[in-house]
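Support request from a user on the community tier.

User writes: "When I paste my structure tokens into the form, the page sometimes reloads and wipes my input. The last time it worked, I copied everything first. Here is what I submitted, just in case something in the input itself triggers the reload:"
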């Protein structure tokens, strides 16, 4: 884990209220693993005191760059959405425990809402390793499924939306359940809202979940992001330090 004063390379609005910020951090790019996250400190007039956690969205080791994807919902993310190329970003990372890529498995990626953001890095790594991957993305509406073309470059993509504006009008468990009937030795890597993850955790497959929690410090000091686990030695684990990725069967849903 390191702190970086990183130069912003680009800030692109990819969908309604959804932005992608790319910054230069060669050491971060070499160290980051799919499923890890970073803590970003918004700067500017009226900036909040606490950092904001974002999953690692993409990494380009040759360029020495890292990006994160976020939705503008409050004061901190509004400031981040206004960043200009050349400005300096205060970033700490890479943080947390990422996904464990299982060789010899049928790889399934399942993302819901802004939980889609950190899964593109995983999809790109799987593709680079020559692995076949099936990708399931879900959101309330078509505008909330960003970077679809980037995902399509990595594997077969199935879309579901609550309002039916893109793909099938259903929740993500419907197409996932159908797919699992025809797949051998599957492992699901999932990120999204808690209700979605609870649902995916109940499917007949090995499931790794990346939990979305408010993480103030990012390394377990503030004790602000506990998750209840099935463990005889401890009732809770900190999502930022011992996650954000957990085996679904270890979580008390």
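"...and here is what came back when it finally went through:"
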């Amino acid at each position: 884990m390191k702190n970086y004063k990183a130069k912003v390379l680009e800030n692109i609005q990819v969908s309604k209220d959804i932005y992608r910020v790319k910054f230069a951090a060669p050491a971060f790019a070499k160290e980051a693993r799919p499923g890890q996250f970073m803590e970003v400190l918004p700067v500017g007039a009226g900036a909040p005191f606490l950092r904001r956690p974002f999953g690692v969205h993409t990494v380009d080791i040759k360029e020495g760059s890292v990006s994160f994807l976020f939705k503008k919902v409050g004061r901190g993310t509004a400031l981040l959405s206004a960043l200009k190329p050349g400005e300096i970003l205060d970033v700490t990372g890479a943080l947390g425990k990422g996904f464990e890529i299982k060789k010899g498995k049928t790889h399934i990626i399942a993302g819901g809402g802004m939980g889609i953001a950190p899964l593109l890095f995983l999809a790109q790594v799987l593709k680079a390793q020559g692995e076949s991957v099936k990708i399931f993305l879900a959101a309330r509406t078509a505008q909330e499924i960003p970077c679809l073309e980037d995902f399509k470059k990595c594997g077969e993509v199935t879309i579901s939306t609550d309002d039916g504006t893109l793909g099938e009008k259903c929740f993500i468990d419907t197409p996932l359940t159908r797919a699992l009937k025809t797949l051998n030795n599957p492992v699901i890597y999932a990120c999204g809202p808690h209700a979605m993850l609870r649902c995916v955790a109940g499917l007949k497959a090995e499931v790794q979940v990346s939990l979305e929690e408010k993480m103030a410090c990012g390394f377990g000091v503030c004790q602000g992001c506990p998750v209840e686990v099935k463990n005889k030695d401890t009732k809770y684990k900190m999502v930022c330090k011992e996650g954000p990725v957990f085996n679904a069967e270890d979580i008390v849903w």
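Agent notes: The reload is a front-end session timeout and is unrelated to the input. The radius of gyration is 17 Å. The chain has seven helices and 16 strands. Escalated to web team.
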